[in-house]
């Protein structure tokens, strides 16, 4: 089950990147947070950090 959750989290983070590129930053933020939560649930520290970095960049893009 953990392996599937990691794949799901990766797919969600990829979807968030597409949403952000399409200018849907609020939708992308929610999707990235869901991805981060899945990574956290399975204890995937690196994935969680990548999702956090994505969220930080998304936040920076939205504010400046």
Characteristic terms for this protein:
3 helices, SARP family transcriptional regulator fused with ATPase domain, 64 residues, mainly alpha
Description of the molecule:
With 64 residues, this protein is mostly helical. The chain has one domain (2-63). The chain has helices at 2-21, 25-42, 45-63. Helix 1 runs antiparallel to helix 2 (25-42). The longest helix is centred in the N-terminal third of the chain and has 20 residues, at 2-21. It is globular. The chain starts with a helix and ends with a helix. The model has no long low-confidence stretch (mean pLDDT 93). It comes from Amycolatopsis vancoresmycina DSM 44592.
- Strand segment count: 0
How far apart the termini lie comes to: 39 Å
The residue fraction in helices comes out at over 70%
> Low-confidence parts lasting 5 or more residues at pLDDT below 50?
none
Gross morphology is globular
The arrangement of helices and strands along the chain is: HHH
- The figure for the number of domains is 1
Mean pLDDT score: 93
Count of helix runs: 3
Characterize the main sheet: none
Protein name: SARP family transcriptional regulator fused with ATPase domain
Architecture blueprint of SSEs:
Layout: H1 2-21, H2 25-42, H3 45-63
């Amino acid at each position: 089950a953990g392996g599937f959750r990691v794949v799901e989290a990766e797919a969600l983070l990829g979807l968030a990147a597409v949403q952000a590129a399409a200018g849907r930053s609020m939708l992308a933020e929610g999707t990235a947070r869901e991805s981060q939560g899945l990574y956290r649930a399975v204890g995937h520290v690196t994935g969680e950090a990548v999702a956090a970095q994505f969220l930080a960049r998304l936040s920076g893009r939205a504010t400046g």
